[in-house]
Design a protein that fits this description.
Elements lengths: L29 E6 L2 E9 L2 E4 H8 L14 H4 L3 H15 L4 H4 L2 H7 E3 L4 E3 L7 E4 L3 H12 L15 E3 L5 E3 L4 E2 L2 E4 L8 E4 L3 E2 L2 E7 L11 H7 E8 L2 E2 H7 L7 H4 L2 E3 L4 E2 L7 E2 L19 E2 L2 E7 L6 E7 L7 H10 L9 E3 L14 H4 L7 E3 L2 E3 L7 E9 L4 E12 L12 H4 L3
Parallel strand pairs: 6-22, 8-16, 9-26
Antiparallel strand pairs: 1-2, 1-5, 2-3, 3-4, 6-7, 10-11, 12-15, 13-14, 13-22, 14-16, 14-17, 18-19, 20-21, 20-25, 23-24, 25-26
Helix pairs in contact: 7-10
The structure holds manganese (II) ion.
């Protein structure tokens, strides 16, 4: 802990002192925003305002060469390394403190560097190098395994020995409020003679946290869990949208492919690992001894309350699950150390999905697959039954670590389902369309 974690700290930006604000002075998450008059640059959220880091950098030194903040992503700043991340947080914490006059008492400088959040558009905060998704909540893996393989074989034999993952698609990771188009793909029920092609009928959510790698590792060079923990810049909420019907037909033997490749939504503010330091928790004692390269010397999990809301088109929002990031068997640092153990290079901007986070009870599960037990027990949303997602449904993930008189919040991670397009190969062809121009 350091002075930036002091629960008694207050800011001269009054909205940051509201105990219900996601962005008190103890948080200081990084994002990328634009305004009507200026394109994308790095900002830091404080209450209902944004510190324009590019403008602040310019005000401090107008002659400086090579801005790391007048950039459309956080990667340039992350590349400066953990010491600079921490120094920047300490500088901001001082500058925004209630008793620090430098910016507080300079209306011109405030005008140049503080932007109301309601005037800003928020963008994907980092350029995503690669996206890897894990499967590391024991309750989730047990629920899914029980559904498809029976209770005796719920956990695969490797599960307690390593964080299982697959390489996902970076190209379709999008920021909150980007529409999600229902995927098309091959569908085949267990009794169907042959597959057909069409819109997914079992579109699902996965409540996850995303860890953002801010420091690289070299190809052929494994890292310890301690090194891995220092390489993680911060965390976002992550919805790993999943087409269960595509997945069940395609996944053997190489794992998920199209079922997960159409969209992954992240929240716009990256909450730094340093801001979450007071909320660290030890992982449960491993049931099977872990190999030395996966052992952790410091608590690797976090106590972060999470919830999923679903709002049908024209209806009201329903909270359908409340859970916590502590329900993990492997930490993000263990996942990163495992990822690099084979010699895989890790890059600045790599995104690691935790895996669906499910707690021990039905109403703390992180997917509709579990909340409705594969559609057998639909949710009741004011009389409307919901097994999987329907067109027009809006799903919002929210999360916050609860401090003494403040919360380290993540903002919203939201997506609304749009209908599938018509595939050009299956559109009804008319002779005119085929005629040469
Ligand atoms: Mn997932």
């Amino acid at each position: 802990m350091n002075p930036t974690h002091d629960p008694a700290l207050k800011s001269w930006i009054e909205s940051a002192n509201d105990p219900a604000s996601d962005f008190p002075i103890q948080n200081l998450p990084f994002g990328v925003f634009s305004t009507d008059d200026r394109d994308r640059r790095v900002g830091v959220a404080i209450g209902d305002q944004i510190v324009d880091m590019a403008a602040l950098e310019y005000a401090a030194d107008p002659d400086k060469d090579g801005s790391v903040f007048a950039q459309p992503c956080l990667n340039y700043f992350m590349a400066l390394g953990p010491e600079v991340w921490s120094e920047t947080r300490a500088m901001l914490s001082r500058l925004l403190s209630a008793d620090e006059p430098r910016l507080r008492d300079d209306p011109e400088l405030i005008q140049a560097t503080i932007v109301p959040m309601e005037q800003a558009d928020l963008h994907l905060p980092f350029a995503i190098s690669g996206y890897t998704d894990f499967y590391a909540s024991r309750e989730h893996a047990t629920n899914v395994g029980t559904m498809f393989r029976g209770a005796e074989n719920a956990l695969p034999p490797n599960w307690l020995h390593m964080p299982i993952g697959y390489n996902g698609r970076a190209s379709t990771v999008v920021v909150s409020d980007t529409p999600v188009i229902r995927p098309l793909g091959q569908l085949k029920g267990p009794d169907d003679a042959a597959p057909r092609f069409g819109p997914s009928e079992r579109l699902d959510i996965e409540l996850e946290m995303g860890a953002i790698v801010g420091a690289p590792s070299r190809m052929g060079t494994p890292i310890t869990t301690e090194e891995a923990a220092r390489m993680i810049f911060g965390f976002v909420l992550l919805n790993d949208w999943s087409a269960r019907d595509l997945q069940v037909w395609e996944y053997q033997p190489l794992g998920p492919f199209q079922a997960k490749a159409f969209a992954t939504t992240v929240s716009p503010w990256v909450v730094t690992a340093e801001a979450l330091e007071p909320f660290r928790l030890a992982a449960p004692p491993p049931e099977k001894p872990l190999l030395p390269y996966l052992q952790e010397s410091a608590p690797g999990l976090y106590d972060i309350n999470l919830e999923i809301s679903l709002r049908p088109a024209g209806g009201k929002e329903h909270v359908i699950s409340r859970t916590n990031f502590r329900h993990m068997y492997f930490s993000a640092a263990q996942q990163l150390a495992h990822h690099a153990a084979c010699g895989c290079a890790m890059n600045i901007g790599d995104l690691l999905g935790s895996g669906t986070i499910s707690g021990p009870t039905r109403d703390s599960c992180g997917s509709l697959l579990e909340l409705t037990w594969n559609g057998a027990e639909p949710l009741d949303l004011d009389g409307a039954a919901r097994r999987f997602l329907e067109d027009g449904d809006a799903v919002t993930l929210r999360g916050a670590a609860k401090g003494d008189g403040y919360r380290i919040g993540f903002g919203a991670c939201r997506g609304t389902i749009r209908p599938s397009p018509v595939h050009p190969a299956t559109a009804a062809a008319s002779p005119e369309d085929d005629a040469p121009a």
